[in-house]
Structure formats: structure tokens, C-alpha cells
């Protein structure tokens, strides 16, 4: 298979990873800038591996089984700025191998089996970032030539085998330009010689999980004394050797000058309440996943941001009077106590969500002299009781979030009126019933309103959103709404997202008239909509691009063809078209609207037409056949009637007469008269099967009548099957011999002279009747 079939191009980024290729496809255009060639097979990297790609900036050779890199290996890709060699078991790199990459800025040698940094890359003076994580390096000392690397900014030694740091190890680092990020996380550090970091300036130091034990960390922090660092990331160590918690565990931090500190704990660790003591000069503190119960207040002087996430705090720290604090985030504690914040003129952002707090007399009492708060998040707490005018003095509030906190009364008393700056209000699942039509009046800046999971008093809905003229997002999911009218939304001309999921709506007629020109998203999933009229579909807002109809009982019938066709045609609008389901009788069976067979609706009329034509043709054919074979049918009836009669009275009739209707007068006047009225009377009958004898009246008419001929034939075959041939032939008038041959079997009778001949002569007639009577009775 030619290689180029594996090549995928995405915005000048070529990727042909994971194909076990043994050379770079020569079909790659020379303009390529990024090439992902990971997971292929290039045991020896040499010049011939690469076509000339002088525009290549990024080359990813992750896990290509590279053992050898020859001197001229990168000759054809010499302008690469980022080289990724992760996961290759490199055992040899030629002295000029890497050095020819004069423009290299980023070199990634993660997991390449390096045991030291004696790789030749001395000419790469433009190098900015060296990642040699996940190797077996035991010293963080850098080679002296790196002093010349003017732009060097990041050394990643994550997950190596560095256990001891000595003063000499930072020699080169100290003589470099500074402002470097040093990552030592996940090393087994046991000891740091005092002075190793003295007067060193780093942008960032990551020593998270860098110590073998708590004891090593305690001592190691002291070894970091004198370091100046922008951002310090600490916490967690490999093994929990020491069970003794010491209030001095983090004292070493006091010897480090840092701006920001990130303290992460993997395991629950009962930190001392003195955790902040050495952070007093920090501007930003993040404390995550500790076991902190109580925090001793410290006089922060420069603190701007404090994040405390997932701890066991019993109380929100008493942080009042921190003039510099701008952002306070204390989240994920359990049933924490909050006594309020005072005198924090810079405070803008307060997030106390997820704390299971209960607050009474909210809210301005908890925030005094904090006039600049713009963002207040009290969501996911237990319950909050409001005072009248709960936010007076907090006039700049822009964001208020109470979702999933019980605050009951807001919807009854319109407590949030006239907050002129409010832009975002989340009251979802707050156990409110909106009965006050002025609940949101005066919120003239409101852009986002979320009131999912609450209830409305029927008549309020028509007024609730009056004057919210800049509203862009309205979430009314799960509010038990069963009907909406266009007037409910008459002022919302800027509305872009309308979320009505999980309600009980059955119709969308409000949409056809509603003036929602800006609407982009309409969520109607999990309602009870079974159909949407064509005119509603035609009048949907022009900019609507997301329309969710998932899990509605759409009636999938040909009568709704336009709707299903519309859904199929506009599938791109549906976030999950497969969830647009048809109404079915069984609740567990799923039928997707987009799988409905529209073709069947289009073909059904044609099929009906074809079937109708077939039916007409069949009818015509049947009529023709009936007409053609009417004798047979009629005769069949006759036979059947006689047969039925014969079953009832065994041969109660003496003779059956076959004659032409044109000879009827003779049959009635002469034959019937003479036979039935003579002594003994002879009964004539109209069904062969009920009769013992058959009288055939031969005449010209008889010979000409196909009906008579047919009757005669049937009679003969009937008598043959009965085993006796009791046919009595009467020749009423002479018939030409030729013609008698037309009647099957007649000629035979005539030849045998077994017939009676009628003549007008009365004497012969007498003899005729005697002989006939004898023949019938015998
Ligand atoms: C990749 O190629 C090498 C050498 O051609 C071969 O030994 C190996 O089995 C191949 N691997 C796969 C997954 O095809
Ligand atoms: C590396 O730099 C030295 C000295 O500047 C130079 O002589 C040598 O050619 C360079 N090597 C490569 C491969 O560019
Ligand atoms: C890590 O270094 C120590 C010596 O400091 C050595 O004994 C140990 O074997 C090394 N670990 C590995 C995995 O090479
Ligand atoms: C250090 O690096 C950061 C980020 O690259 C930069 O914003 C800052 O100005 C640098 N500081 C010095 C002193 O070079
Ligand atoms: C905080 O800064 C002050 C003044 O710069 C200094 O005296 C004090 O030692 C510092 N405290 C800590 C814990 O770094
Ligand atoms: C409020 O906090 C909750 C939970 O931490 C979060 O999901 C939500 O996005 C926050 N609200 C705002 C407006 O940032
Ligand atoms: C519809 O979308 C277009 C393009 O995003 C935008 O320019 C236009 O203003 C929108 N119309 C309305 C009424 O919002």
C-alpha cells in the first residue's frame, strides 16, 4: 500500500502516526510545517529517512523505536523548532545529530532512557525548553555550555531519580539569565544542601511529590531557603513515613520568597492550622485537598486571591480587613460556618459554593464594607433565608448564583428587583414558586436568567419577563410548564438561548407568533410534543441553529411526513438526532424519527393505484370468464341443486329433460302433459342428479344451442359415472347427419337406433308415448 494513503492533512498539520512506516512518505509536500510521525518504525534515524522539508517546524517522533541518531539525521529538516523524541530507547546520538538543528527551541527527550545530561546539544543556543522527564537522571546539574542559552526558560526533570541536591548543582542555573521554570516533581528527594537555592531567581518551582517523605519535605523546604520564586507548587510526597504531625512541617516556606503558592495534597493530610503562617507575603494562595479544619488568621498584606478547595473546614476563615483581597473561593467543605466578611474594599469575586451552609438573614449583613463585590456564588448550599432588600450596599453585583440552594421566597416577594447591574442570575432548583409578576422587574441589564426546576403560578408567566430587554439566555427547564403563549416572550428580542427541557409542552404554537429574532438555540427535549404544524416549522426564527427535540413522543406516520422530512433534512441542528424518537406503544422499544421510512409514504399512493388497476383488470377478466363460461357455471348450479335434492330424496324423480328453450312449447304442452298426467304419472325434474333417466329432445335448435350440447355432455358423463346409460333420445325433428356429429355422443345413439322419433301423426304419437313411458319407467 503506498504510504500517501495514510497521510491525513489538517490545516498544514500532517499526521501519519501509528502506521509502522519505515520512512517519511516522500509524497509529503515540502511546505509542511507540522508532522506527526509518532508510533512508526525508524530504528536508525539518518538523512535518507526524511525528504527535504525545510519548512518543517514541529517534528513528532514519539515511540518510533529509534536507537541510533546519526550526525546527518536531521539535515533535511534542519529548521525544526520543536523535536519530540518521547519514548524512544535512544542509545547513541552522533555529536552533530542534534547540533545541526540550529533553530531548535523545544527539545523533548521524555522516557528515552537517559541517565545523565551528557547529550551533545551545545550548539542549540536558541533552546528555550528542555523536557527530560521520566528518565533515570540522578543530578539536576546542567552542562556548562547552557550558560550561553540566552532564551532558556524551562527545565523539566519530572520523574527522574534525583535524590540529593548540592550547591554545585545549581551553578549553571545561577549563571543563566534567570526567570526559569524548574520542575522537580516526582523525584525521590532526600536531602537538599543548605544554600543550594540561595539567591536563585526562578519563575516557577514545582516540587509536588518531589520528596520521599514528610520528614524529607520538612528539611528539604529549609534547603530551599533564600530562593526567590514567582510560583511555588508543593504538596504530597511519595511515602508517608512519618506519622508525627509537626506544627513546624511547613516552616521552611518562611525562608522562601514566593508570590504565588499552590499547595496540593493527594491524600487527606491533617495540616496544621499554621498552614498560612509562611504564606503571609503571597499574592495568590491555592489550597487543595488538604485536611484543614481550622485556619489561624494571619495578617495578609498583599494577598489578592485565595482558593481553598476540598478541605474539612469548620468555618470560612476570618479574613476580614484584607484590603488587597480581590477573589475569595472557599468551596467543597461540609456544613461550614460563615460569620461574614468585613472591610474588604477590593473584594470583587466571592465563591462560597458547595459548602452545605445554612444562612439566615441574608445577605448584606454578611458583607459589610465590601462595596465592590460583583460576583457572588452561594450555589449548592443547604438553605438561605432572605431579608428584605437582601443586597443593599452591594449595588455593583453582576453575577448571583444560588442554584440548588433552598431560598424559597424570592419568587413570592420579588426580592431581587431593581438590581441595575445584575447580568447573570441563577435561581435553578431553589424551591421557588413564582407568584409575583414583578419578581424580575427592574433587572434591566440581565443577560442570563436560569430558573430551572422551579414552578410558576399560571398567570405570572405572562408578565414575568417583561422589560428584560437584553436577556440572551433563559433556562426554564423542568418547571412543569404545559403551555406557553407568544406573549410570554414579547420583550425578549435579544434572546438567543431558550431552554425548555423536561417540561410537559405538547404544542409549539407559541413559536410561530413569538417575536424571537435572535434565537439560536431551542431546547425542547423531554417534553410531550407529538407533532409540529408545518407553518410553525416554516416560521422558526431565522438564526435558529440548535434545536433539541430528543425524547418527545413524535407521531411517526405518513400524515406527519413533512415534520419527519424536516427533521431528517435539518439533522445538523439536532445535538443528538438519534434521540429524536417516535411514539411507540411499548415503552422499552425505541424507534428513531430519522430512521422512519419516508419512501414508504411516497410509494404508498402509487402502490394503491397499482393495486386498484390490478383489481379492475382482475374483475374484467373474471367477468369475461364468467360470461364465456356462464353455461358451465349455471349448469354447475343446476347440478348442485339436483345433487342436494337427490341426497334428500333418493331418486324421487323419474326423468330429467334436456331441451332447447325454443322447443319449450312442445316440451310443456306435449311431453310434460303426457308424461306427468298419464298413469302412472312420471315426474320430470330439472336436475340431472335427482333423476333416474334423462330425456334429450333433439331438434335443430338443440343442435345449435351450445348450452344444450353442454348439458347433454354433462348428462352423459354423469350417467357414465353412475354406471348406467339411461339416456332416452327423442328426435323432435330431422337434423342433418353432419350436424348431429357436432354433438358429442349423439351420433352414437342415433346410429344404434336407440331413439324415439316424434311425428305429427296421432297414431304414431300414441305408439311414441307408450314406448317413451316404458323407457322411462323401465
Ligand atoms: C512493524 O514493522 C516491523 C519491521 O518491519 C515488524 O517487525 C513489526 O512486526 C511491525 N509491527 C506491526 C504492528 O506491524
Ligand atoms: C557547532 O558549533 C561549532 C562552533 O561554533 C561549529 O564549529 C560546528 O560546526 C557546529 N556544529 C554543527 C553541527 O552545526
Ligand atoms: C536511583 O538512584 C539510586 C542512587 O541514588 C540507585 O541506587 C537506584 O538504583 C536508582 N534507581 C533506578 C531505578 O535506577
Ligand atoms: C519572566 O517570564 C514571564 C513569562 O514568560 C514574563 O512575563 C516576565 O516578564 C519574565 N520576567 C523577567 C524578569 O524576565
Ligand atoms: C514578609 O515580608 C516582610 C517584609 O518584606 C518580611 O519582613 C517577612 O519576613 C516576610 N515574611 C515571610 C513569611 O516571608
Ligand atoms: C458557582 O459555583 C458552582 C459550583 O462550584 C459552579 O458550578 C458555577 O459555575 C458557579 N457559578 C458561576 C456563575 O460561576
Ligand atoms: C443572525 O445571525 C447573523 C450571523 O451570525 C447575524 O449577523 C444577525 O445579526 C443575526 N440576526 C439576528 C436577528 O440576531
UniProtKB/TrEMBL annotation:
Classify the protein's membrane topology as the record does: Single-pass type I membrane protein
Does this UniProt record's set of keywords contain Magnesium? no
- Name all TIR domain ranges: 651-776
* Transmembrane residue ranges: 609-627
**Designated name of the protein:** Toll-like receptor 4
Keyword field: Cell membrane, Cell projection, Endosome, Glycoprotein, Immunity, Inflammatory response, Innate immunity, Leucine-rich repeat, Membrane, Receptor, Repeat, Signal, Transmembrane, Transmembrane helix, Ubl conjugation
SMART domains the record matches: LRR_BAC (SM00364), LRR_TYP (SM00369), TIR (SM00255)
Record-linked SUPFAM superfamilies: L domain-like, Toll/Interleukin receptor TIR domain
Pfam entry (one) = LRR_8
Where does the record say this protein resides?
Answer: Cell membrane; Cell projection, Ruffle; Early endosome
Amino acid at each position: 500500500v503506498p504510504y500517501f494513503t495514510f497521510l491525513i492533512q489538517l490545516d498544514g498539520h500532517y499526521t501519519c502516526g501509528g502506521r509502522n512506516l519505515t520512512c517519511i512518505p516522500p509524497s509529503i509536500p515540502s511546505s509542511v510545517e507540522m508532522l506527526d510521525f509518532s508510533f512508526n518504525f525508524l530504528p536508525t534515524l539518518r538523512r535518507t529517512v526524511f525528504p527535504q522539508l525545510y519548512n518543517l517546524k514541529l517534528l513528532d517522533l514519539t515511540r518510533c523505536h529509534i536507537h541510533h541518531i546519526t550526525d546527518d539525521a536531521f539535515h533535511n529538516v534542519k529548521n525544526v523548532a520543536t523535536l519530540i523524541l518521547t519514548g524512544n530507547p535512544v542509545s547513541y546520538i552522533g555529536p552533530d545529530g542534534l547540533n545541526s538543528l540550529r533553530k531548535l527551541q523545544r527539545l523533548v527527550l521524555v522516557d528515552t532512557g537517559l541517565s545523565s545530561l551528557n547529550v551533545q546539544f551545545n550548539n542549540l543556543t536558541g533552546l528555550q525548553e528542555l523536557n527530560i522527564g521520566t528518565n533515570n537522571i540522578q543530578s539536576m546539574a546542567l552542562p556548562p555550555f547552557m550558560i550561553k542559552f540566552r532564551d532558556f526558560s524551562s527545565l523539566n526533570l519530572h520523574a527522574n531519580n534525583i535524590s540529593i541536591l548540592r550547591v554545585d548543582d545549581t551553578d549553571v542555573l545561577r549563571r543563566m539569565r534567570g526567570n526559569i521554570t524548574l520542575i522537580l516533581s516526582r523525584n525521590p528527594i532526600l536531602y537538599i544542601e543548605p544554600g543550594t537555592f540561595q539567591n536563585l531567581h526562578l519563575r516557577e518551582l514545582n516540587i509536588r511529590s518531589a520528596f520521599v517523605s514528610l520528614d524529607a519535605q520538612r528539611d528539604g523546604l529549609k534547603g530551599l531557603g533564600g530562593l526567590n520564586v514567582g510560583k511555588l507548587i508543593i504538596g504530597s510526597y511519595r511515602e508517608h513515613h512519618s506519622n508525627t504531625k509537626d506544627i513546624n512541617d511547613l516552616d521552611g516556606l518562611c525562608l522562601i520568597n514566593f508570590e504565588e503558592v499552590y499547595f496540593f495534597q493527594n491524600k487527606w493530610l491533617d495540616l496544621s492550622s499554621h498552614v498560612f503562617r509562611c504564606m503571609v507575603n503571597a499574592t495568590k494562595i491555592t489550597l487543595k485537598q488538604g485536611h484543614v479544619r481550622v485556619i489561624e488568621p494571619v495578617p495578609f498584606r498583599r494577598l489578592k486571591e485565595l482558593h481553598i478547595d476540598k478541605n474539612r473546614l469548620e468555618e470560612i476563615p476570618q479574613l476580614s480587613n484584607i484590603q488587597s483581597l480581590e477573589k475569595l473561593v472557599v468551596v467543597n467543605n461540609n456544613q461550614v460556618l460563615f460569620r461574614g466578611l468585613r472591610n474588604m474594599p477590593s473584594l470583587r469575586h466571592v465563591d462560597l459554593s458547595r459548602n452545605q451552609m445554612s444562612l439566615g438573614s441574608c445577605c448584606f449583613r454578611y458583607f459589610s464594607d465590601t462595596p465592590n463585590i460583583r460576583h457572588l456564588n452561594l450555589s449548592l448550599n443547604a438553605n438561605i433565608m432572605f431579608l428584605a432588600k437582601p443586597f443593599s450596599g452591594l449595588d455593583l453585583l453582576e453575577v448571583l448564583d444560588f442554584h440548588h440552594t433552598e431560598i424559597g421566597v424570592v419568587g413570592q416577594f420579588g426580592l431581587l428587583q431593581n438590581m441595575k447591574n445584575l447580568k447573570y442570575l441563577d435561581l435553578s432548583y431553589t424551591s421557588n414558586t413564582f407568584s409575583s409578576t414583578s419578581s424580575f422587574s427592574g433587572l434591566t441589564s440581565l443577560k442570563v436568567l436560569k430558573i430551572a426546576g422551579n414552578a410558576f403560578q399560571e398567570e405570572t408567566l405572562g408578565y414575568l419577563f417583561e422589560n428584560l430587554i437584553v436577556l440572551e439566555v433563559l433556562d426554564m427547564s423542568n418547571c412543569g410548564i404545559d403551555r406557553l403563549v407568544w406573549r410570554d416572550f414579547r420583550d425578549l428580542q435579544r434572546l438567543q438561548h431558550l431552554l425548555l427541557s423536561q417540561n410537559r409542552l405538547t404544542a409549539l404554537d407559541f413559536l410561530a407568533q413569538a417575536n424571537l429574532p435572535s434565537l439560536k438555540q431551542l431546547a425542547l427535549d423531554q417534553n410531550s410534543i407529538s407533532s409540529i404544524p408545518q407553518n410553525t416549522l416554516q416560521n422558526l426564527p431565522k438564526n435558529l441553529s440548535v434545536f433539541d427535540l430528543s425524547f418527545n413522543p413524535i407521531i411517526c406516520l405518513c400524515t406527519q411526513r413533512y415534520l419527519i422530512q424536516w427533521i431528517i433534512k435539518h439533522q445538523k441542528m439536532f445535538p443528538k438526532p438519534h434521540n429524536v424518537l417516535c411514539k411507540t406503544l411499548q415503552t422499552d422499544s425505541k424507534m428513531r424519527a430519522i430512521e422512519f421510512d419516508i419512501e414508504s409514504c411516497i410509494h404508498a399512493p402509487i402502490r394503491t393505484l397499482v393495486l386498484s388497476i390490478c383489481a379492475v383488470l382482475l374483475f374484467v377478466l373474471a367477468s369475461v370468464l364468467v360470461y364465456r363460461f356462464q353455461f358451465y357455471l349455471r349448469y354447475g348450479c343446476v347440478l348442485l341443486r339436483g345433487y342436494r335434492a337427490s341426497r334428500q330424496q333418493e331418486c324421487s324423480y323419474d326423468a330429467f329433460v334436456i331441451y332447447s328453450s325454443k322447443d319449450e312449447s312442445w316440451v310443456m304442452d306435449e311431453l310434460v302433459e303426457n308424461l306427468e298426467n298419464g298413469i302412472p304419472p312420471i315426474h320430470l325434474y330439472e336436475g340431472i342428479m335427482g333423476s333416474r333417466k334423462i330425456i334429450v329432445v333433439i331438434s335443430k335448435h338443440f343442435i345449435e344451442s351450445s348450452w344444450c350440447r353442454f348439458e347433454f355432455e354433462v348428462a352423459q358423463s354423469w350417467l357414465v359415472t353412475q354406471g348406467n346409460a339411461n339416456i332416452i333420445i327423442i328426435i323432435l325433428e330431422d337434423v342433418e347427419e353432419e350436424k348431429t356429429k357436432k354433438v358429442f355422443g349423439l351420433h352414437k345413439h342415433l346410429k344404434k337406433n336407440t331413439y324415439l322419433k316424434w311425428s305429427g301423426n296421432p297414431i304414431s304419437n300414441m305408439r311414441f308415448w307408450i314406448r317413451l313411458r316404458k323407457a322411462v319407467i323401465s
